[in-house]
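Aim 2, interim progress. The first record below pairs a target sequence with its C-alpha cells.
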Amino acid sequence: MDTLALSRLQFAITSMFHFIFVPLTLGLSIMVAWMETRHLRTGDELYLRMAKFWGKLFLINFALGVVTGITLEFQFGMNWAEYSKYVGDIFGAPLAIEATLAFFLESTFIGIWVFGWKKVSPRVHALSIWLVAVATNLSALWILLANGWMQHPVGYVLRHGRAEMVNFLAVVTNSYGWLKFFHTVLSGYVVAAFFVMGISAWHLLRKGKTDFFTRSFKAGATFGLIASVLVVLVGDFHASEVAGTQPAKFAAIESQWETQTNCAYSLICYPSVKRERNIVETLRIPGLLSFLAFGNTGATITGLKAFPQDIRPPVLSTFLSFRTMIALGFLFVILSLIAFIRSRGAGLDSLHERRALLRVMLYALPLPYIAGQLGWIVAEVGRQPWIVYGVLKTSDAVSKAVSAAQVWASLIGFTLLYGFLAVVDIYLLAKTARKGPGPELPAGAGQKQKLS
C-alpha cells in the first residue's frame, strides 16, 4: 500500500473509532441534563439518582471521546499537509472556533458539574450540565460546518494556488453543513436513547431496581421516538441536498447508471458478484426516485455513466451502506414507537414482565452505532475521489514528505493504542452499567451526595 492508501486507512480507522463516542456524548448529555432538571422541578429523588448514574456513563464516554478526537487534527498537518496548505484558510476557521468556544465551554462546565455537587446551588449545578450539553452540540456544529464545506464548498476563491475564504457568512450558513449537523446530532440522540433503553432492559430482565430502570426506559423510549422520527425527516431533506450538490454521490447511493427522467426507485435490491454492476434491483416504482430527489416525478436523475470514470465514487460500498442505514433508520422508528407504547401501558411493577420487548431492546443497543458508521461511509466514500468536492482530489491532498513506512508506523501505533482504549472503555462502561445506581437517597438529601 502506498502513502495515499495508508493515510486514508489511518484517517478512516481513527475517525470511525472516535465517532463511537461522539454520538453517545451528544445525546446522553441532553438526557442527563433533563433528568437533573426534572429533579429540580419535582423534588423527586429518583431523577437525581438517574442523573448521577447515567452521568457516570456519560463521563466515561466523554473522556474517551476527547482523547481519540485530538489525534484527528494532528493528521491534517502530518498526513494531509497538502490539503492543509490548500484549504487551511477556510477549513481552519470553524475548527478554531470549535476549540476556543465550544470545547472550552464544555470542559469548564463539566468540571463544575463533576466537582460542584456540594459547592454550588442546585440551580447552578443543573445549569452547568445544560451548558455542557449545549457546548457539546455546538462543538459538533462547527466541526460539521467544516465538513459540510468539504462536501459543498462555498464562499471561496482560488487564488495564488490555494483556496481562500471571501465570505465567512456563506460558509457558516451552508445548507449542506446544517443538514449534516441536524442529521448527525439527531442520530446521536437515537444512540443515547437506545443505550439507555438497552441497559435498562438488561436490569429489568433481572428484576433489579425496577422503579429506577422503568423510569429510565420510559425516558429513553420517549427521547428515542422523537429523535428517530426527526432523523428520518431530516435525512430526506439531506438526500435531496445531495442530489442537487453531489449528483455523482447520489447516483452511487442509488446505483443509478443511466441518466433518466421519471426515474424509478427500487424497493428491493441486493448485491450480486455475477452482474457487471454488482446490484440486482427489483420491484421498481416509476418516478419515485425523481420525486424523492427533487419533489417532481418528471425530474431528471443524472446517471453514473454521465461522469468520467475517474471521478465516479465507489458504488457497491456506498449503495449498500446507504440502503442498510435507511433500513435501520425505519427500524429505530418502529422499535422506539413500540417501546414508547408498551412502556406507557405498563405500570412501574409490570414493565419487567414484557420480556420479549426487553430482549429486543437489549439486542438493539449496538444498531444505532452501526447506522452512524454507515452514514459516514456514505458521506466520505461517496465523495471520492474528492477530498473537497469538485475542488481538490484526495490524491492531491496527501503529504509529499511522509513515507509509507512512517504512515505504517503511526497506523500500527494508533491501532494498538485505540485497541487498548476500546478494551478500557468497554470494561468501564460494562462494570458501571452492571453495578447500577447507588442506594436510594434519604428524603431531602438532594445535592448533599457526591457523584459516586
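The second target in this work package is listed in the same format:
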Amino acid sequence: MATSYDLIVIGTGPAGYVCAIRASQLGMKVAVVEKRSTHGGTCLNVGCIPSKALLYVSEIFQESKETFPYLGVGTGKPELNLNAMMKHRDEVVNANVQGIGLLLKKNKIDQFRGTAKILEQGNVRVTPEKDHSFNLNAQNIVIATGSESISLKGINVDEKRVVTSTGALNLSKVPESLLIIGAGVIGLELGSVWQRLGADVSIVDVADHILPGMDKETVKTFQSILIKQGIHFKMSSKVTSVESDEKTNKVSIKSTEGDKKEFLQADIVLLAIGRRPYTHGLGLEDVGVLLDEKGRVRIDAFFKTNIDGIYAIGDVIAGPMLAHKAADEGVALAEIIAGQAGNVNYNVIPNVIYTMPEVAGIGKTEEELKENGIDYAKGKFPLTANGRARAMHKTNGNIKILTDKKTDRVLGAHMISHNAGDLIHEVAVLMEFGGSAEDLARTCHAHPTLSEAVREAALNVNKSAIHM
C-alpha cells in the first residue's frame, strides 16, 4: 500500500525545499522527491552557489593584481591555484546541500530519491536509479522541478569544449580564449570569472544591448564598465555554427542587421542563451496538466494547475527564473494550502548580477514607465561622490531611483555599485510598505557608508541631493 501524505513536492531546489519546510511548519505530513543525489536543485549544485564562490575568488585574484598595489599593499605577483579554487567551490556547495538535507530531516519531511511521475490526481510514482519503483499518495502535489539550459540548433554541447553553465563551472584550466553566446546574467557572470583569471572573453548576442529586460540606461553604463575591464562584445550578432577540432572551436557569426559574416576561434564556447522549464517525464500530458506556449505550467493566482490538487512553483511557471522568487512562491503556496493568505508581491522582486561592480534592479524600469504612460521622476547619484566608495576605491557606478511624480511613491530602483545586491534591499523594504522617496531621504544613514548614495539618489528625486 502506498504511503499517504498531505503534500508531495517534486524537486528540492529553492522552490521545492522551502515549500516543503513551510508546509511541515504548518502541520502537514510532507514528502519530497529528488532525482539528484543531493538537494538544492540547479541553484545550489551547479548554479547560484558555485558561481558565487568562483566570482569571489576571481575578484580577490584581480584585486591582488590591480587594486592592492594602488592601495599600497605589496603581495608580489599573485599565482592562481585552480585546484584550490575548485576545492573551495566544492566545499561551499557541499555545505549548502548537506544543510538542506538536515533542514528537511529536522522538519520531519520524508525524503525519496528518484525520478517522479504523476500517474493521476493524488498519485506519484517514484523510480530510483537502481531499485524498484513505488507509489506515493497525497492530497496535494507540487511541481517544483526547475529549469534546464536552452540548446541551440547546430551547436553540440560536450561540456568540455562547448559547454553550458555547468561545464563553465568545471573547466580544468583557464582557457586562453572564451566565447560566450548570450549576454544575459549567466554569460556576464561566468565571463567575468574567467576574464579576471586571464581568459580573453568575447560575448555574442542577437540583441543590441546586454541584459534584456533590465533598465537600459543602467545596462548601457554597465556594458561600458565591462568593456573597460577587457570583455569584448559583438551585439546584434547571431552564432550560426560551431565547428570543433582537437585544437580549437571555429565559430561562425552573422550580423542581424545585414549580411556581414565573420569567424572567431575560441578554446571554449559557452552556450548561455537562457533556460527553459524542466517538465518532461513528469506525466503532465497524460494527467492533463496544461502548459503554455513556452512550455511553462499554467497556473491560477493560487499556483493551482487546471487539475485539482496539483500545483506548480518556481522556474516551471511564468516569471523571472530567480531562486528567491521561487522560494517566496514556495512559502506562499504552503500557506495557501494550509488555508492562509499566502502571497508573492511580484512588483518587489530584486534582480542582481554578481559581477564587479554588482548590478541590481527592482520594480519598474524607465522603459516600462514610459510604455505605461506613467508620469515619473528620477533621482540619480554617482558613486564618485560617495566618501566610502572613494575610500574603498570602488567608485564605478551610480544609484537611480524612480518615483510616481504625483505621489512620490517609489516605483523602481536600479544601481551599479560594490555590494549593490545588498543595497537594493533598502529600496525593497521601502517599496513593500509603499514608501516614498521622501521617506527614504529623511531616514538617517550612517556615515560613511555606501548606503548614503541610495539616500542621496532619493534626495535627488526632488533635486535636493547634498553632495552633488
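The two ends are 72 Å apart (CA to CA). This observation will shape the mutagenesis plan for the next reporting period.
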